[in-house]
């Protein structure tokens, strides 16, 4: 059974850099070269989370050394963050990093209401960037007026059908 653990530790030594650095590096370069913004967001999110975990490991290295199979746990978590099928990086970012960032840092360029944020997260990345540009150019009040007019028009069309 000792050979199994030795093999597992050796596999982590090879798989860790491949999963956490080489594949994300390759995918990030592809994302930069692609015309779509969704993949850019996915990989930027991954690198933000990877940086955070790396800093956390530097600070808490003595604690992590006592956790059994820490390298295996870290590898599994990195795979979940990296693999586009799971979109773990986006999930963690949306659930934890983004709310903390907006609650502690006042970002002058992106003062969106909750309704605006929900709407932007529900549309395609191309439409989202157009709406975000509109809000930056015209202010969030102009966006609210358009949304209210669209909602009124939608209600009017429902009643007339």
UniProtKB/TrEMBL annotation:
Q: Which keywords belong to this entry?
A: Membrane, Signal, Transmembrane, Transmembrane helix
Tell me, in one coarse class, where this protein mainly resides. Answer: membrane
Sequence intervals crossing the membrane: 6-26, 47-67
- Per UniProt, what is the membrane topology? Multi-pass membrane protein
The keyword Membrane belongs to this UniProt entry's keyword annotation: yes
Q: Which Pfam families match?
A: TB2_DP1_HVA22
**Location(s) in or outside the cell:** Membrane
- Superkingdom of origin: Eukaryota
Secretion signal: which residues?
1-15
Key word Membrane present: yes
Q: Which family does it belong to?
A: Belongs to the DP1 family.
UniProt-listed PANTHER family? HVA22-LIKE PROTEINS, RECEPTOR EXPRESSION-ENHANCING PROTEIN
Protein name according to UniProt: HVA22-like protein
What species is this protein from?
Sphagnum troendelagicum
């Amino acid at each position: 059974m000792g050979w199994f653990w030795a093999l597992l530790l050796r596999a982590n030594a090879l798989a860790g850099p491949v999963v956490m650095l080489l594949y994300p590096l390759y995918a990030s370069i592809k994302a930069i070269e692609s015309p779509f913004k969704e993949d850019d967001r996915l990989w930027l999110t991954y690198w933000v989370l990877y940086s955070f975990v790396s800093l956390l490991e530097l600070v808490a290295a003595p604690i992590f050394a006592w956790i059994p199979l820490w390298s295996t746990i870290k590898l599994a978590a990195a795979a979940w963050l990296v693999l586009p099928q799971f979109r773990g990086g986006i999930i963690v970012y949306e659930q934890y990093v983004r709310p903390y960032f907006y609650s502690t840092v006042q970002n002058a360029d992106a003062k969106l209401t909750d309704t605006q944020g929900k709407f932007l997260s529900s549309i395609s990345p191309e439409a989202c960037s157009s709406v975000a540009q509109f809000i930056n150019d015209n202010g969030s009040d102009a966006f609210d007026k358009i949304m209210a007019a669209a909602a009124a028009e939608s209600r009017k069309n429902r009643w007339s059908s």
